[in-house]
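Students often ask what a 'structure token' actually looks like in practice. Rather than answer in the abstract, let us consider N-acetyltransferase domain-containing protein, a protein of 249 residues. Its sequence is given first.
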Amino acid sequence: MAAPTAQIRPYVEEDRKLALFMISKANFAGLATANNKTYTHPVTIAIWLALSSIFIQYMNWWPSGDFGWISYLKPFPALASLAVPVMFAVDWINRPYFEELTQEALRYGDLKDIKAYYSKNPASGFWLLELGDTFVGLIAVDASKPDVKPRKGEAVQPRTAVIRHFHVEENYRSSDIQNDLLEYAINHAFNKDPTLERIEIADSPLLSYRRSAARKAGFELDHNTKVVGVLRWKLGTRYLERNKWIKST
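Now compare that with the structural description of the same chain:
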């Protein structure tokens, strides 16, 4: 039996439900990472231990040694039960940031009619990566971003495309297939539009596979856009200029 073949193919209308679900999943993916990093932060652990100690003291559950080593298990119910509200509080604080990011992505005009939107400019495109019949990832490059006329005294902004959506399923990230998917979108955009000067992509420390792929492709940090979560992680924008892309090809 032949092994399934990997392919990058254009979006078709039958992919709409899958695409919308994966775009939502991609923007919410950072929440799990944010929560896990917050759970293991020294401040969070200190709060959990302090609350547990108060509860153990109140219930008089400190080990007494009266029943040998079994008495040392007395504090464990308090430690376990106090972990639940701490974890709930972390998720409750972090979640709104990622819900907002997801809603921003879903409300953007490209998802009303994906095929029509990404057909406006030859440098734009929306592609799905598949291994046989199995979905692996997706990427969308938007080159129809309108040029903004600079005000008097302002510098002219370069012709820019944006990596609007980018997601690879977790099981396939260890193969670095996301690097190939991003490279495909970059080459398509620059080759199809000679006037395109740079490509931008969102940057997040909570999505390490995307940051790693962007760095490997030559994207540099341009600016930070906002901070999210309990620990105030900085989101940003990275860019790749045509001259740098030409030198790397």
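One point worth highlighting: The chain has two domains: 6-13+106-248, 34-102. Ask yourself how you might have guessed this from the sequence alone, and why that guess would often be unreliable.
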